[in-house]
Write a structure and sequence with these properties.
7-stranded mixed β-sheet; alpha/beta; 18% strand; 414 residues; single chain; globular; 45% helix; 5-stranded mixed β-sheet; binds nicotinamide-adenine-dinucleotide; Rossmann fold; 12 strands
Length: 414
């Protein structure tokens, strides 16, 4: 089976750079990461045994601002995946026009297999290992799959022990340590804002629109909660344990309460269990993959029965699946726009940390909304100039152009 990796991203990049007529050498410079760091991380387990884990920090491009991107703790983390994710960050920050570059990091580990002490130890060891390449003005990590505000707090503390109080070294921190209002919800809220604008743009009534969401973590559950509050009907959700369906619409606040109390959703009686594979093929207005990459691929793309795919996850649709969906007239709103809410509010968090001055939540919500709406219509306007331009290619074209401009203006290709 195809998986999401650097090759999938390269395919997306190549289409857009070809469309832009980008010089071959400049294209090569923008396509590949600037720097790749792989580290070995020794961890003394609670039983006294030693385990050595592998971690990465890959810095794709910093022409427009410091490297920026999340940290993922997952057994499937590998260098190809981190490379692809780092590049997506460069083009995401450029598309929504915030002054950051792109990076990504991760550790190949299942954090559920670690105790809280082991998780903290591993995180601190990782910070020391990548210390030479991160910094408040050089590279600022953030949460991603299986990492959260607590882990960001440990990162901030470990870094601050040698550098002095440095809240701006990481975003997605707890509010008490300089985190921003609205950061935790930002990606899922952003997905919902983009869905709302897509509905308006494509004349799909938002009230009562049926939505299926794969993944019920940070992004999926905040998107579900926000869309439920917009009046959408969330008919299917899933997480790594299983999938649920209720054609009448799931009571999302009740499901979130159940998850918080039981640490699971699949035993809830608010919906019927279905096979995980069935979820993506449910008939609906909007399908939101909000878990891992490569989940819509050549073997299942044909079965999709949604009107639009909104990519909450990074890289959920492979290039072959993209082509199948194009043929089925199912538009895909790309990850670099749909899930950009998180990095936008991360940017606001970093700005607040630098200023030591904190903003009200409504100020952040308004700024987020405006950034996303402006970026959506910019992308849509370009896509409508040419029949064969997908939303994804248009989004990449806009962002590649911005990064290319910065690279040239900085004289990096002399
Ligand atoms: P998370 O760890 O909070 O949640 C991941 C969810 O996916 C969990 O509910 C997990 O059970 C579920 N999942 C894992 N494997 C699954 C499978 N095979 N089928 C169904 N569900 C599965 O992670 P998150 O922060 O919500 O990130 C989800 C996606 O969104 C990732 O692709 C991430 O890169 C992307 N993203 C996250 C942010 C952010 O701010 N957290 C920002 C931009 C993009």
């Amino acid at each position: 089976m195809e998986i999401n990796n650097f090759k999938s991203y390269c395919d997306q990049f190549d289409r857009a750079s070809h469309e832009l007529g980008l010089d071959e050498n400049l294209a090569a410079l923008l396509k590949y990461p600037d720097r790749e760091l792989a580290v070995e991380l020794p961890l003394i387990r609670d039983d006294g045994s030693l385990k050595v884990l592998r971690g990465y920090r890959i810095q794709h491009n910093d022409a427009r601002g410091p490297f920026k991107g999340g940290l993922r703790y997952h057994p499937q983390v590998d260098i190809d995946e981190v490379r692809a994710l780092s590049a997506l960050m460069t083009f995401k920050t450029a598309l929504v026009d915030i002054p950051f570059g792109g990076a990504k990091g991760g550790i190949q580990v299942d954090p559920a297999s670690l105790s809280a002490r082991e998780l903290e130890q591993l995180t601190r060891t990782f910070v020391r290992a990548i210390y030479p390449v991160i910094g408040v003005q050089t590279d600022i990590p953030a949460p991603d799959v299986n990492t959260n505000a607590q882990i960001m707090a440990w990162i901030m503390d470990e870094y601050s022990q040698t550098q002095g109080y440095s809240p701006g070294i990481v975003t997605g921190k707890p509010i008490s340590l300089g985190g921003s209002q609205g950061r935790e919800a930002a990606t899922g809220v952003g997905v919902s804002i983009i869905l709302r604008e897509t509905a308006k743009h494509r004349n799909i009534p938002l009230e009562g629109a049926s939505v299926v969401i794969q993944g019920f973590g940070n992004v999926g559950s905040w998107a579900a909660k926000t869309l439920h509050s917009y009046g959408c009907k969330i008919i299917g959700v899933s997480n790594a344990q299983g999938a649920l369906y209720n054609g009448e619409g799931i009571d999302i606040p009740a499901l979130i309460k159940f998850r918080d109390e039981h640490d699971s959703i699949h035993l809830s009686s608010l919906a019927e269990p279905i096979e995980a594979d069935e979820l993506l093929c449910l008939e609906c207005d909007f399908l939101i993959p909000a878990a891992l990459g490569g989940v819509i691929h050549k073997l299942n793309a044909e079965c999709l029965r949604c009107k639009v795919v909104i990519e909450g996850a990074n890289g959920p649709t492979t290039p072959t699946a993209d082509e199948v969906l194009w043929g089925k007239n199912i538009p895909v709103i790309p990850d670099i726009l749909a899930n950009a809410g998180g990095v936008i509010v991360s940017y606001y968090e970093w700005v607040q940390n630098l200023q030591r001055h904190y903003w009200e939540s409504n100020e952040i919500a308004q700024k987020l909304e405006k950034k996303l709406i402006d970026s959506f219509y910019e992308m849509a306007a370009l896509a409508h100039t040419k029949k064969e331009l997908s939303y994804r290619t248009s989004a990449f074209m806009l962002s590649i152009k911005r990064v290319a401009e910065a690279v040239k203006m900085r004289g990096r290709i002399t």
